[in-house]
Amino acid sequence: GRKIPVSGKIAPLVERFEKQGNEPLFSTDVCWNVATWREKSFYKTLDRIGIQKESDHTLTPYSCRHYYATRLKQIDVGAALDKSALMGHTSPQMTEHYQHSNIQELREIMEKF
């Protein structure tokens, strides 16, 4: 039941998916705990959209959070608090926990130094 903004770039895909009468991508109706939800909803969705094969369930919901937070860090728009709100966090410090740097970003920082 959580509402989040969707990029205009993917909005048509989401609308088409909804019009086709598909079940929600991630449903909490199928379980009562995190382990069951991961097996019955999260992995099933990754399989359906072609991100991961059933035999290779190495991604976790937190993998998605880490990726999303790191990508938000790389976008040079919006305040840190806005990015935290997109993550569902109340503080930028919590969002920073999920962010990572790559070697290219570190090189760019050193060039500015």
Features:
113 residues; mainly alpha
Number of strands: 0
Please give the share of residues in helix.
55-70%
Number of alpha- plus pi-helical segments = 6
Major pleated sheet: none
Based on Cα principal axes, name the global outline.
Answer: globular
Strand content: under 5%
Overall structural class, as computed from helix and strand content, comes to mainly alpha
Quaternary arrangement of the chains shown? Answer: single chain
Could you give the order of the helices and strands?
A: HHHHHH
Q: Give the CA-CA distance, first to last residue.
A: 45 Å
Mean pLDDT: 81
The whole-angstrom Rg is 17 Å
Low-confidence stretches: none
Description:
- By secondary structure, this protein is mostly helical.
- Helices cover 56% and strands 0% of the residues.
- The chain contains six helices and no strands.
- The longest helix has 15 residues.
- The radius of gyration is 17 Å and the shape is globular.
